[in-house]
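[Solved] Which block belongs to which protein?

Original post:
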Amino acid sequence: MQFPIWHWAIVLLLVGVPVFFAVRSAAKPSRNPGNLVGFGGWLLLLAIGQTLAPFRTLVELFSSSEGYHQLMTLPNGPLAVCGEVVLLLGFTLLQLVVLVAMLRRSLRFKRLFLYQWIAIPFVFALDAVWTSTILGAPISQVLAGDALVAPIAGFVLTGIWVAYVFKSVRVRNTFGGTAAGEIATAS
């Protein structure tokens, strides 16, 4: 199935407009930057998304069980399934570590969130190469159909949140990006 250009235009419009306003409002100077602390505004949306992320990955894992049953009958199929399950569970663990860092308001949250973003294409590529190698199938067969749409969309959307995390005054204040006791100013 081909993904026509106008679908991309709609996706860009639906994602781009809210993101533009999110980044713009994150960069706007506030009248009282000291009030921008805690899980509010856009950071609340990010917190909700990060809380749901491990569940979403586990749902993806369990929804693939039918495909896993089909792969189990192939030579080296169990090894391919095991590799994918381990990769997805490892990614879920990373998402949980980022979630805990966020809930604890850890200084490491921003860096961990960046690592989680980088892990999206890494896990996808490693899974595709693993499956292709173990099953002896061409990579084009492993990536057939619209297999690239979800990882690309996830990477782009998370990248937008990464930009927000590194530009937002609220994030800086909430996660202690300044000297102890100092409130960041919107400069």
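(Second protein starts here: sequence line, then its structure tokens.)
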Amino acid sequence: MEVFIEFLERIDNPQHRDRTEEVLGWVTRKFPNLMPKIAWNQPMFTDHDTFIIGFSVAKHHLAVAPERAGINHFSDDIVKAGYDHTKELVRIKWDSPVDFSLLERMIEFNILDKADCSTFWRK
């Protein structure tokens, strides 16, 4: 989590900072083999130098980016969880609960799907 300290300190709203820290900490504990890093000024996790999942903070939500393949694979589950999404990210409103089960499945999907990937992003 040390790698995320400066990023978290820049989040002005204490509730947003706490929620973001909670989610990043959960990923760190649940997936200790993933490498936490800051890239493009956003927290993300990689596996063998390939992108697995990223996060960003907006005024009304925490954005989760599992790449388009993750969005496509879980689009029905994302809607069932009550989240809005685009082709590239899921929006978790600050006052909505985090569906950690869905987040876990997205991360596991990307780890397995990108096991043989030699690039940062999917081709």
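Accepted answer:
You had them paired correctly. Confirming on the second one: The radius of gyration is 14 Å.
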